[in-house]
Design goal:
Layout: E1 3-10, E2 20-27, H1 33-43, E3 47-54, E4 57-63, E5 68-69, H2 74-85, E6 95-99, E7 102-109, E8 112-118, E9 123-124, H3 129-135, E10 141-144, E11 148-152, H4 156-161, H5 166-169, E12 176-182, E13 190-196, E14 201-204, H6 211-222, E15 226-231, E16 237-244, E17 247-252, E18 254-262
Parallel strand pairs: 2-3, 4-6, 11-12, 13-15
Antiparallel strand pairs: 1-2, 1-18, 3-4, 4-5, 6-7, 7-8, 8-17, 9-10, 10-11, 12-13, 13-14, 15-16, 16-17
Length: 263
């Protein structure tokens, strides 16, 4: 039986082919893990999401071309978008996803989808020398959570000009590295980039889960709860971020670019 699969751009800006592309595969029943890994390699996107329905929502798993990940924002946004677009969910339904990071939810408001994710605060650390050497930046702050390093630099131009040594970054035992700065561009509170060569992605275009750390970090720095964030990859992406205690709301737009079938 053919299995539907979609290519969705998530956290898009106003320009075409922006945001982060994700694969979304809708299953009738849970699939073999090796098969899902194979499909993720075939899609060759930063993440491919696999969903199967259960009585109280959907099971949801995410795979890069090389590994399964425990939390992914853009592929969850893409999944929710497909579920509403293809009428797996009614317009007023709430998306409920059972994942390795607990229960995540999504609601649709006009052309935006808002995700409810766990906050992933980074604790300050003394950075390993290889981290800053690999990034080629001067850090104002370095922290770490269960997934990633978080590095603040002095300006958004430093974020934009960072040219990491990916081979050296690959040697670090973390999912990825977030580099961030306060934005000098009107309309954005902070910008960031995300590098994850150890997970098979040199630079991720837009990383929702990284903002589960960035939101709480900038909440403390800027003394506010709500932000507009720009991830400054070549594709670029925009996220609305709100910190609600130990949860973070991530809102953005998504668009289906292609659809097909796994034969």
């Amino acid at each position: 039986m053919a299995i539907p699969i979609y290519h969705v751009d998530a956290f898009v800006t106003e320009k075409p082919f922006s945001g982060n592309p994700a694969g979304v595969c809708i299953l009738e029943r849970p699939a073999n893990e090796d098969w899902m890994k194979g499909i993720a390699r075939e899609m060759n996107l930063s993440e491919t999401a696999f969903l199967d329905r259960r009585s109280d929502g959907f099971n949801l798993r995410w795979f890069t071309p090389t590994v399964e990940v425990a939390l992914c924002g853009h592929a969850t946004l893409g999944s929710a978008h497909v579920l509403w677009e293809r009428k797996y969910l009614g317009p007023d339904d709430r998306g409920i996803f059972h994942t390795k990071s607990g229960v995540l939810t999504a609601v649709k408001q006009e052309n935006r989808i808002t995700l409810d994710f766990p906050a992933k605060d980074a604790e300050p650390i003394q950075p390993p020398s290889s981290l800053l050497t690999a990034l080629g930046v001067t850090a104002l702050y370095t922290g770490k959570n269960q997934f990633d390093y978080l590095v603040e630099v002095g300006s958004d131009s430093e974020v934009l000009q960072a040219s990491p040594n990916f081979s050296l970054l690959r040697s670090l035992s973390v999912r990825g590295v977030i580099v961030t700065a306060r934005s000098s561009t009107p309309g954005y509170d902070f910008i960031s980039r995300f590098f994850a060569p150890g997970s098979g992605i040199d630079e991720d275009p837009v990383t929702g889960s990284a903002h589960c750390a960035l939101g709480p970090y900038w909440q403390k720095k800027l003394k506010k709860d709500t932000f507009v964030a720009y991830q400054a990859s070549a594709r670029g992406g925009i996220l609305s971020v709100r910190v609600n205690g130990d949860r973070v709301s991530l809102a953005g737009r998504a668009v289906t670019v292609m659809q097909g079938e796994v034969l």
